[in-house]
Amino acid sequence: MLSPAILIELLHSRRFGVEYQPIVEVKSGEAFGHEALARFYTASGEAVPPQAVFDALEAHPLALYQVEHTLKRLQIDEAPAGELFINLDPDTFHIASKDKGPHPLVDLVGRRHGLTVEIIENSSVSDADKSLAMADAFAARNVRLALDDIGAPASVLSLPVLLQMDFLKFDRHWWERWHSPGYRKLLQTLVRFAREHGQATILEGVETPAHWQAAMELGVDYVQGFFFRDCFHSVHP
């Protein structure tokens, strides 16, 4: 748990930044784009796990939305050239959906060319409904969409949401089950389905040469992970 004192100081002093992780095209081996990852720090410069911050903010919806909006603006303004992927939780998007008029996050994202919104995978039916509503809002502005965390523990795969995506991102936990014939067959089937449906695929958690080789054999379009850590670019507070 993140202590209230650390959380308040972190937010008040704006001790957050962004790290851009490259998304690499398998065929060329070159960076296709980057995913913007939120980073948080204590007053002494120690890293705070992002999920701990977001979990602590769940009980304070307006503060959560303010932090997310500020982070998204930073991620967009400081982004390197190429396709930019930013992730967005349906709950955060839903906070501002209750107001009439244009959605501020849709307007913010819609200003940048070459941007893909990653929808965090669902964990319940209500999350799936929020994800679908969010996907519809961004699709109406011709913003590309990616479904994130496919295959993560405790995730729920919503077929209507999946069918609306431009990119399917497979979670790093697939590597933990790589030697299971059933899981390998399922992943191969999903990759084949995406190709036949005109969707691009991204495999996360690529950390070793063996992972890179396996990704090429699997036939995914793009990979992402610490194997490309030398290409990282960070923007600190």
Description of the molecule:
- The chain has a domain at 61-225: TIM Barrel (Alpha-Beta Barrel), CATH 3.20.20.450.
- It has 9 helices and 10 strands.
- It has helices at residues 4-12, 50-57, 61-77, 90-95, 104-110, 125-139, 159-163, 181-196, 209-218, and strands at residues 16-25, 31-41, 47-48, 83-88, 115-119, 144-150, 167-170, 200-203, 222-224, 233-235.
- β2 (31-41) and β3 form a beta hairpin.
Q: Could you outline the blueprint of secondary structure elements for this entry?
A:
Elements: H1 4-12, E1 16-25, E2 31-41, E3 47-48, H2 50-57, H3 61-77, E4 83-88, H4 90-95, H5 104-110, E5 115-119, H6 125-139, E6 144-150, H7 159-163, E7 167-170, H8 181-196, E8 200-203, H9 209-218, E9 222-224, E10 233-235
Parallel strand pairs: 2-4, 4-5, 5-6, 6-7, 7-8, 8-9
Antiparallel strand pairs: 1-2, 1-9, 1-10, 2-3
Helix pairs in contact: 3-5
Give the biggest sheet: 8 strands, mixed, barrel
Give the tally of β-strands.
10
Low-confidence stretches: none
β-sheet strand percentage: 15-25%
Question: Helical residue percent?
Answer: 25-40%
Indicate the overall shape: globular
The name of the CATH topology of the domain at 61-225 is TIM Barrel
Strand order in the largest sheet: 1-2-4-5-6-7-8-9
